[in-house]
Design goal:
The structure is a single chain. The chain is an all-beta fold. The protein is 0% helix and 61% strand.
Length: 120
């Protein structure tokens, strides 16, 4: 069982920055990857950034060079630094943790979602 608590969403102007935070609690030793996803109105949820604990990174093409995912193991926290924000970055952002709990298997846990709105 993993609980994810997000913070950092809000309203920002084009070109501005936000930092999203997601703090995990519970069976955090089983976390194998963390990520951020977003869902714009009328669109499917999409991967924004993902980081495995062997330091493999994945970014959506639309955010490469602008967003950075990172983690702080001591604080049990994953971050998404969002720079040079554009209106098309607007959406609900969700924190994700992929967790392996032997012998039960692998599970995905999600934060509650936080709204990011970028004004033109």
């Amino acid at each position: 069982q993993v609980r994810l608590v997000e913070s950092g969403g809000g309203l920002v102007q084009t070109g501005g920055s936000l930092r999203l935070s997601c703090t995990a609690s519970g069976n955090i030793g089983g976390i194998r990857a963390v990520g951020w996803y977003r869902q714009a109105p009328g669109k499917q949820r999409e991967l924004v950034a993902r980081l495995t604990y062997d330091d493999s990174f994945n970014y959506a093409d639309s955010v490469k060079g602008r967003f950075t995912i990172s983690r702080d193991n001591a604080k049990n926290t994953v971050y998404l630094q969002m720079n040079a924000l554009k209106p098309e970055d607007t959406g609900v952002y969700y924190c994700n943790a992929n967790v392996h709990s032997s012998p039960w298997g692998t599970f995905d846990y999600w934060g509650q979602g936080t709204q990011v709105t970028v004004s033109a």
